[in-house]
Amino acid sequence: MPSRRASTADQIKDYILTQGLHPGDHLPTESELCERLGVSRSSVREAIQTLSTLDIVEVRHGRGTFVGRMSLDALVEALVFRGVLSPGDDLQALREVLEIRQALDLSMAERIVAALRGTANPSLHDLVDQMVASATAGETFAPQDRLFHTELLGHIDNSLVGQLVTAFWDVHTAVLPRLGLTLPADLDQTARAHRDMLEAAEAGDVDAFRTAVVDHYAPLQRMLDEARPPREDARGAGR
Amino acid sequence: MPSRRASTADQIKDYILTQGLHPGDHLPTESELCERLGVSRSSVREAIQTLSTLDIVEVRHGRGTFVGRMSLDALVEALVFRGVLSPGDDLQALREVLEIRQALDLSMAERIVAALRGTANPSLHDLVDQMVASATAGETFAPQDRLFHTELLGHIDNSLVGQLVTAFWDVHTAVLPRLGLTLPADLDQTARAHRDMLEAAEAGDVDAFRTAVVDHYAPLQRMLDEARPPREDARGAGR
């Protein structure tokens, strides 16, 4: 990255901070920024593009430039591409994403259970019913699945975990078809494991919640295991 | 993002995939890409800039454009900015990053201990000695701290976890001084907890490893707690 562009981007970030702007707030026009920062229009334009890729600013065409939501979309884009690029590594990138999803879900088990213990969650149950019905009909249920995880993690006081889990969910879902992999046949287990997670949380049972999380990933895990010989075997007996 | 640019970026990504290119491989020149993809030079230039921000390509000036390392630098940049932007949220962004670092470290406890059980790790011990010596002298030890975590996580078969932990480490370290926070006075505990983590792993003791991980974050946690009243209190008794 040319240092000029990096520095104009840093100047714009400093401007956002010193002015106390928040996501959604309007930024000055390109020519106002040129004048204020003492840099050329092309520097401002390049800096805005870099910041827009990172969702630090958002360009709404015909309406101007705004402070962005700082979502993790850039992370998703980079990881999806890395996941697709590395099939030569025997799906290793996809395994790593799966492990992190499971690790984050397990690490938040106590807090999710504490938040849901003794509550009723009709919208989550509704999503589970839809997933089970789809699985029974042999259909996939990606939108409900994604929404379930987002809503579940919305109950804990850490928005970054929810965003990361959703980001990794998106990576996973985008990479599978590009690698020519279809969703596992045993989608039934995945659908039902969502119900187990929800019921365990409402019952205040942390151990049952953890078991359901692991169950929930088992079909995906098996699919990856069957797509290539397990790494241990490959390395182990020198076969 | 204008659809034209997104689509040229997608075309370049497809080109990398269909040609089977890997990180470090040379990409065609700007004019070759224009011709091959049938788009204008400015579209190619914008797409390259977007992909370069995401580290999907790397522009080396005077040498051309290469497939990038797909690092998580973009994630770090976006999260650092979000962490700095939200001090009005009572350091919540920083707390969330800290929780995720701890969750990832704890989730990998069994695998790190399995990898290090019964081994000798002179370079890790050397880093610990340097950290303890610095803490005793009242000095900070950020480079050794970062290297310790990177090297420790290098022992497990998931490169993404190591990259994420390092990325969050960088976020943390970059955000603290910008918020006017200094490192905690009880750096001694942090330094010694690294030694406890290492010795527990070498001894094959998962529980001791987990305890040391929590100990290791305690000074940072206390610093954040003291920087504002705990959220529970603020919400609880209506004080």
Automatic annotation (TrEMBL), chains A, B:
Q: Which UniProt keywords apply?
A: DNA-binding, Transcription, Transcription regulation
**InterPro entries the record matches:** GntR_C, TF_FadR/GntR_C, Tscrpt_reg_HTH_GntR, WH-like_DNA-bd_sf, WH_DNA-bd_sf
Q: Tell me the ranges covered by the HTH gntR-type domain, including all copies.
A: 2-70
Q: Which GO terms describe its molecular function?
A: DNA binding; DNA-binding transcription factor activity
Pfam families assigned: FCD, GntR
Protein name, entry field: GntR family transcriptional regulator
Keyword flag tRNA-binding: no
Its taxonomic path starts at:
Bacteria, Bacillati, Actinomycetota, Actinomycetes, Micrococcales
The domain of life for this entry's organism is: Bacteria
Keyword set includes Phosphoprotein? no
